[in-house]
Amino acid sequence: MSAYSELANHFERASALSNAIGILQWDSDTMMPKGAVGTRAESLAYLRVAHHGLVTDPRIGDWLEAAGSDTALGAWEQANVREIRRIWTVDTALPADLVEASSKAISACEMTWRQARADADFATLLPYLHEVLRLQREIGTAKGEKLGLSPYDALLNDYEPGGRSARIDALFAELADFLPGFTDEVIAIQAGRGPVVAPDGPFPVEAQRALGLSMMAVLGFDFDRGRLDVSAHPFCGGADNDVRITTRYDQEDFARALMGVMHETGHALYEQGRPQTFLHQPVGQARSMSVHESQSLLMEMQACRSREFLTFAAPQMREAFGRSGPAWEADALLRHYTKVERGFIRVEADEVTYPAHIILRYRLEKALIGDEMPLSEMPSAWNAMMRELLGITPPNDRLGCLQDIHWPSGGWGYFPTYTLGAMTAAQVFDAAKRADADVLPGIARGDFGPLVRWLRANIHGQGSLYETDELLTRATGRPLDASVFISHLRRRYAEG
Amino acid sequence: MSAYSELANHFERASALSNAIGILQWDSDTMMPKGAVGTRAESLAYLRVAHHGLVTDPRIGDWLEAAGSDTALGAWEQANVREIRRIWTVDTALPADLVEASSKAISACEMTWRQARADADFATLLPYLHEVLRLQREIGTAKGEKLGLSPYDALLNDYEPGGRSARIDALFAELADFLPGFTDEVIAIQAGRGPVVAPDGPFPVEAQRALGLSMMAVLGFDFDRGRLDVSAHPFCGGADNDVRITTRYDQEDFARALMGVMHETGHALYEQGRPQTFLHQPVGQARSMSVHESQSLLMEMQACRSREFLTFAAPQMREAFGRSGPAWEADALLRHYTKVERGFIRVEADEVTYPAHIILRYRLEKALIGDEMPLSEMPSAWNAMMRELLGITPPNDRLGCLQDIHWPSGGWGYFPTYTLGAMTAAQVFDAAKRADADVLPGIARGDFGPLVRWLRANIHGQGSLYETDELLTRATGRPLDASVFISHLRRRYAEG
């Protein structure tokens, strides 16, 4: 057997494990009775250790060396070797005791965080978060040494392969220049139009679910290879050809679940559109977190908060709930779903103010990993940056630096991918509309075929064949820049 | 670490895998979209191979030898060593190529069987079933050589540790003597009482589910450690502290789902009542298939088809569906749920005629494994025995020897445990009633506490501490005999 075949077989086996983990993780969040938490933790820990053992198998190093000089490999196989090398380099960078210490510190910190957030008590969290931060820095340093990257860039690289903070600094600087003034402008414009009338509830959960399922079908979700369920925190998970998205229903506001479902459906379409031939291989995986988020935001923000989509969807919404009236007209719905407001909470933020929440977190986590500020000063730095970027000051840390689980759970380097994703979404949607003049008219008549076909060909079906920059250049004509996103915001919020 | 601790740790790890397999299997039957079938098969195959590798680890042999002479072990630990030795002896008896050949033959045979059953076409199935049988005989021979058992007893031993066909022959002979005449008698008695009025539907699925959940709670199901869902074939599965039962709803006949739920709840109470200290160890598992089936039949047949239970349940049923009338009185429900009829299909059979279906299958499979009759003659032997035991002749093999998946799927030696379970259920329920005079009155007022407490102490909480005979002798005063079951049938059907 060739070295390449050995690698492919080996990672095929690893995918059998990661698919099992994906379903068990989904089950933990949707179906599992609470008394099973201990049993499940043992199963997941066992499978994760087994998976880590597989992808750090010392034979992989030899196979990679031999496969690297195999001139008979095609482009996909070569890219697969590159992706396997990427995984192997990172996963073998860490000594086992560092992995274990980090895992324990995260468990303790997460547990403390839940109470600390409820109590708005940063002081109690501080020593736990300090330990997580210290170990994240150590992990970043170990990986960075193997990759020739700074500790922060090495952490970022896990979520955004090839992503570099120097580049993000520039992109985010452009947004940080533009957004504070623009937010003032939009809020003034929207205030000038008078109050927004919103559909008022209650909206029965069954009707919300039926509407969500029917809209998933409109967007092109393949129900033979996926499901919709309920969880406390919506996500897209599952396994290869088994893509499971979740939502949660608010009886007073159906759009919260519905827009969430559209968002997760964007993620799901990416997963369902990955190349079947390499579905279980590293090269067949989604390219990066920013590209993944671009697909969810493309659906939720670009496509489904558009006048075209709401023109199509308004009658469906009225029918789903047996309601009508001024609040149920497409124009009113559009105003409602594009309302801009300054708020403290990231996950409740609109499209215009969201990047401020991200830029703030990005700048802080980079400084903290880089040891440029003490963790104890983080809450005041957070609040100062909220004032600078959004003009508001959190009254306490529950509404400030304690709101997200990312840092307590060891997700350092993840935050920037949200806003990179928003920018990518704008650029990709713009390219799709330019490539096929029927994309927008299709959405207006509830036909997402033109859009999804283009995404399949240019993004989903490409898996990890190219690095992110090349993927984006091939699909949109250039690497990521901030201008298309800024134009989109101008058009929708200042000129629309 | 002591040899015993090594064994216990090793099997604790194995349970992490088997619990993962249990949940993935449950998911396959309840939640999984059909397009995921290939991905899931790969995950399950991987985990099963890994599990087999763990429980056949050569170090186990050394640990067993050392632990066998460890005089410091308590009774539970000694029994755990005995159970581990049992597993290890059986699982290491088979060469890998035999396991693989059998697994492939079963896959091919199952697939052919689905169509052959639909077509009532035994001839097409014959060569596939012949191969499965041949390999089952080979497996039984290999295991039998290590255990000092005949090939059939070695297969039986996998489901019923310590079970022997000589003993079953005698028990079943007693039933086969009694039942044909008794069936005639009961059918005549029931006919003399005039027609049974049954509640007529439709019965909405949501109301059926709510009633099922409320009755599960009455029986003592712990919803913090389990769930109820829907599947094509009802089962009790899941994992430690995560017991998942299923049912299917018939809009025209709510009792089908309800009695199925009571049946699976009986299994679930056993699983939820296993000793927590040894939950993940072999000694903490359910004793055998016949004891497991005794717990489901005790709930479904002994407790829930009783006048006491139906007196309690009738008002709840009326309220669940907002219905009333003569068919909804306890007496009418009791007549409906204890109606005896001769039929071709095992899974639709009542308590009186069910054993005939089992005795027939048991005698046939024993003769086939023992190479005492050619497989090609099985259909005519089946039909002859149906005439002898039940007095009816299947018009085709779909209603005859093609109806069950057990043989095509390699489940040889399993069938007798159903009727051993029915007899055990009668004997255990009888002992519980004698031990606590409040068992029946409790059921009549919807309080299963007295019954379940006795079962917890005498059956569920005992795990595999004792061999089946000793478990039953301790709980009921003697090993299994047929007389209590026969008395129960007489009392309920001829004297009731």
TrEMBL record, chains A, B:
Reactions this protein catalyses: Release of a C-terminal amino acid with broad specificity, except for -Pro
Cofactor comment text: Binds 1 zinc ion per subunit.
CDD domains assigned to the protein according to its UniProt record, in alphabetical order: M32_Taq (cd06460)
PROSITE patterns per the UniProt record, alphabetical: PEPTIDASE_M32 (PS52034)
Pfam families for this protein: Peptidase_M32
Alphabetically ordered keywords of this record: Carboxypeptidase, Hydrolase, Metal-binding, Metalloprotease, Protease, Zinc
List of residues binding Zn(2+): 263, 267, 293
Record bears the keyword Translocase: no
Example of a GO MF term: metallocarboxypeptidase activity
Active site: 264 (proton donor/acceptor)
A biological process term (GO) from this entry: proteolysis
Membrane spanning residue stretches: none
EC numbers on record: 3.4.17.19
Cofactor(s) needed by this chain: Zn(2+)
Class in the EC hierarchy, top level: hydrolase
Family according to the record: Belongs to the peptidase M32 family.
Stated role: Broad specificity carboxypetidase that releases amino acids sequentially from the C-terminus, including neutral, aromatic, polar and basic residues.
Protein name: Metal-dependent carboxypeptidase
Native source species: Aquabacter spiritensis
Lineage of the organism: Bacteria, Pseudomonadati, Pseudomonadota, Alphaproteobacteria, Hyphomicrobiales
